[in-house]
Amino acid sequence: MKLHIHKYLAFLTASLIALTACEKEPVGLGSEPDKAKIIFVNAAPNGAAQPQLARREIAVYPYFNEVNYNNSPLKFPWSTGYRAFVPGTMTIRMDTARSIGTDPPGPGATVAQVTFDTQADTYYSVYAIGTVQNVEAVVLTDDLSLPSPGKAKLRIMNFSPDAGPVDVVITGGVAAPVTIARNLRSKGVQEFIEVDPGTYTMEVRVAGTTTRIGTARSNMIIDANSCYSIWTAGFRTLPSPGNTFAGYGFDLRYHANRWSNPLVQ
Question: Which of 7, 142, 191, 227 could form a disulfide with 153 if both were Cys (CB 3.0 to 4.6 A apart)?
Fold first, then answer.
């Protein structure tokens, strides 16, 4: 009898852990309601048109109120994940960094800085956009409340330096084709909308046309009860003759701001 009780208690404990994991806090954090949470995304590619400068693997060190939490610089198009801070005034400074062994001589330099107020139990995304030679900062407040049951939330941004106004279209997956963003101008942000979960193929088109920019992005997994940010990144036309690195080419990027494990029910 005791053996059966112990087995039941072990099963109950495992079940409670599974239920807790089902609806995770936004990526990278536990429950810290007294803190402001900030994610930094380097969406600024190297736009050098001079071959010598284009060889520099320029990345960005983000400083949060003068503190650098990164052991290495953040290259395009990666992010820090959310970090928790005491709420109040936040200044994020962005300094370039050199990749030793491949870049020409020259020190790093501050390329942008942004100051904004933060509140407890609130999530923020800070994007470095434009190019590393001409950085702008975009600060967004993230609405990470859960979508309607069984739905997912998508926020769509146009952060490509040269794509111009775009449409974003689901061309494969649930209920395809459907246009989920229309005439989204450069630096434009379409706040969160609800969609059905699924595995999608999405493509970016010149606004109002069927002309695709870049290649379609396939196998985009959108899970229920989750919140995602999707943004255009990179150059439609690579700077010439300097920048020929294919990794700076146009792409559709995305990450989960809040994710609920679909395998745990």
Answer: 227
Q: Please state, in angstroms and rounded to a whole number, the distance separating the CA atoms of residues 118 and 120.
A: 7
- Full domain range(s) for residue 245: 146-260
Distance CA 116, CA 123 (A): 13
Q: Is 99 part of any domain?
A: yes
Q: Tell me how long the chain is.
A: 265
* E-strand stretches of the chain: 36-42, 59-64, 67-68, 83-85, 89-97, 110-117, 122-131, 134-142, 152-158, 166-172, 178-184, 189-195, 198-206, 212-222, 227-233, 251-258
Q: Distance between CA 59 and CA 80 in Å, rounded? A: 13
Based on the fold, state whether residues 194 and 214 are members of the same structural domain.
yes
Q: Which of 166, 235, 176, 238 is nearest to 206 (CA)?
A: 166
Half-sphere exposure of 187 (CA within 13 A, CB side): 10
Q: What is the pLDDT of residues 171-207, one digit of tens each?
A: 999 878 999 999 999 999 999 999 999 999 999 999 9
Same domain, 184 and 202: yes
Residues 44 and 134 in one domain: yes
> Is residue 25 pLDDT above 80, yes or no?
no
Q: What pTM, to 2 d.p., does this model score?
A: 0.84
For residues 184 and 166, give the distance between their C-alpha atoms in angstroms, rounded to a whole number: 5
Let me know whether 130 and 153 are in one domain: no
CATH of the domain at 113: 2.60.40
